[in-house]
Amino acid sequence: MEIHQSAVILLLVLCVSFSAHAQEPPPYVRDRYLKFLNQHRGPFVNVEMCTSEISKRNITAPDGGCKPVNTFIKAFTDYIDPVCGGGKDSKLFRSNQPFNVVTCTLEPEPKYPNCTYTGKLSTQYIVLGCIRGWPVHYEGQ
């Protein structure tokens, strides 16, 4: 059996791309990265799930009250992390392709802990705040 040179090159490219994020984030980024994932990664979140997901994930405003708006990116980590440019030093990165997102907006009147949200599905480019190639902040579109 003969291995073609192009197959070897493809295998090497795949190995390098998978190894870029195969490891854990550095300790100084880990907590912020995990918080970002909790607040914004939602591959299976739909518009009807806003209130339950925000409550279940204990997502609150900085003052501990109801967060006015929270956005879930309907994608897995393998698609979200590469938006950060593979470890380049920069603060904000815009995705090269649009993502489906669910934007959850606080309904008028509810007070913490009875936060109630209305969801809206859209497709948009996302902008993430990143540290050393790891997303730590959802900036928007």
Mind explaining what this structure looks like?
Residues 29-140 form the Ribonuclease A-domain domain. With 141 residues, this protein is of the alpha+beta class. It has one domain (24-140): Roll (P-30 Protein). The chain has helices spanning 5-19, 27-40, 50-56, 77-80, and strands at residues 69-73, 92-94, 99-106, 117-124, 127-131, 134-140. A hairpin with a 2-residue loop joins strand 5 and strand 6. The model is unreliable at 6-21 (pLDDT under 50).
- Please trace the helix and strand order, writing H or E for each element: HHHEHEEEEE
Please give the CATH architecture.
Roll
Mean pLDDT: 86
In the predicted model, the low-confidence regions spanning at least 5 consecutive residues are 6-21
Number of helices: 4
Question: Which helices and strands occur, and which strands form pairs?
Answer:
Blueprint: H1 5-19, H2 27-40, H3 50-56, E1 69-73, H4 77-80, E2 92-94, E3 99-106, E4 117-124, E5 127-131, E6 134-140
Antiparallel strand pairs: 1-3, 2-5, 3-4, 5-6
Q: How would you describe this structure in keywords?
A:
6 strands, secreted, P-30 Protein, 3-stranded antiparallel beta sheet, 4 helices, 26% strand, alpha+beta, 141 residues
Briefly say what this structure is:
With 141 residues, the protein is α+β, with helices and mostly antiparallel strands. The chain contains four helices and six strands, in the order αααβαβββββ. The protein has helices at 5-19, 27-40, 50-56, 77-80; strands at residues 69-73, 92-94, 99-106, 117-124, 127-131, 134-140.
